[in-house]
Specification:
The protein is α/β, with parallel strands linked by helices. Helices cover about 35% and strands about 25% of the residues.
Length: about 170
């Protein structure tokens, strides 16, 4: 077995020590990660979607090798709600009293592994902000475009049971 295959098996085994009985889901998530894609998980509340995302981020951080990240693998979770605004994800320019100028404060999209929890509860405008990051690996804030880290992976979730108050994904 080559080194890459061994590391991949170790990653899957690491995740499966925490996430039990979801072998197929773990493999789908790891496949999406390797393909430099993103994944949408549809499952009932309490099915372990959040734990899966956190465990993946932790397992990557603990795995030996170069992950092309500085300062370790960051994990962030955003709970999507109808009142969420694009700037809540992206960040915003805030006036710095010391510098007497506006500085950009990064939002939670500036991460490596993102759990976009119940993405279908967000308005289309907010979904669009996330989709730009996923498709183009960049964030637009006003006149400025920020490149995301090469390693940016989104695990989006939606609850198939409660569809009231949701917005369909494009």
């Amino acid at each position: 077995m080559n080194t890459t295959s061994t590391k991949l098996q170790q990653l899957i085994q690491n995740i499966e020590t925490i996430i039990r009985g979801k072998t197929q889901e773990v493999r789908y998530v790891v496949t999406a990660l390797l393909a430099r894609g993103h994944i949408l998980l549809e499952d009932n509340p309490g099915a372990g979607k959040t734990v899966l995302a956190k465990t993946l981020a932790q397992s990557i951080a603990e795995a030996p090798g170069d992950h092309h990240t500085e300062g370790g693998v960051q994990f962030k979770r955003i709970q999507f709600t109808p009142d969420l605004l694009p700037m809540d994800l992206i960040g915003s320019h805030i006036f710095d009293e010391v510098k007497k100028d506006f500085v950009f404060k990064k939002g939670p999209l500036f991460t490596h592994v993102l759990l976009a929890d119940e993405i279908n509860r967000a308005s289309p405008k907010v979904q669009s902000a996330l989709l730009e990051c996923m498709a183009e690996n960049q964030i637009s804030a006003g006149d400025t475009t920020f490149a995301l880290d090469k390693f940016f992976f989104t695990i989006a979730t939606q609850n198939p049971i409660e569809m009231e108050g949701t917005y369909p994904l494009p």
